[in-house]
Amino acid sequence: CCQWPCRSWTCVSDRDPEADFSPNLLNSVVFLVTTAAQVATFAANYKGRPYMTPLFENKFLLGTLVVSTLCLWAAALEIFPDLNEYLQLTPMPSNEFRVALVRLMATDLFGSLAVE
Fold it and tell me: Which of 92, 96, 114 lies closest to 32 in space, CA to CA?
């Protein structure tokens, strides 16, 4: 069960749902990917004229989306270890894994924007 990419995972059925949170690779990757997907969905579904300010004219919203995306990519690449510690993310097993994770997040973001 759960053999890729890290053999130290345990099956969901082996975990105690009442136990305190303990960071692991699975929940770190799920947090990064789902948060990136939420940012991408918000950016892709934001409609501008005629009912709201267009995204590129809404500087606060655009800045928030850009900073959120950059922080997620920085966390995935482990550029700022203090950020990862604050977010309780576990270290990624390899550089190739980090790059693949960021590629997945970028593909989701740009793919969502392209489709919309």
Answer: 92
pTM of the prediction?
A: 0.78
- pLDDT tens profile 14-67: 667 788 888 889 999 999 999 999 999 988 888 777 888 888 888 999 999 999
Question: Quick one: tokens of 86?
Answer: 């604050």
Contact residues for 40 (Cβ-Cβ < 8 A; gap 6+): 108, 109, 111, 112, 113
Maximum Cα–Cα distance for the chain, whole Å?
A: 52
Alpha helices in the chain (DSSP H): 25-45, 59-77, 81-86, 95-115
Peptide bond into 5 cis (omega under 30): yes
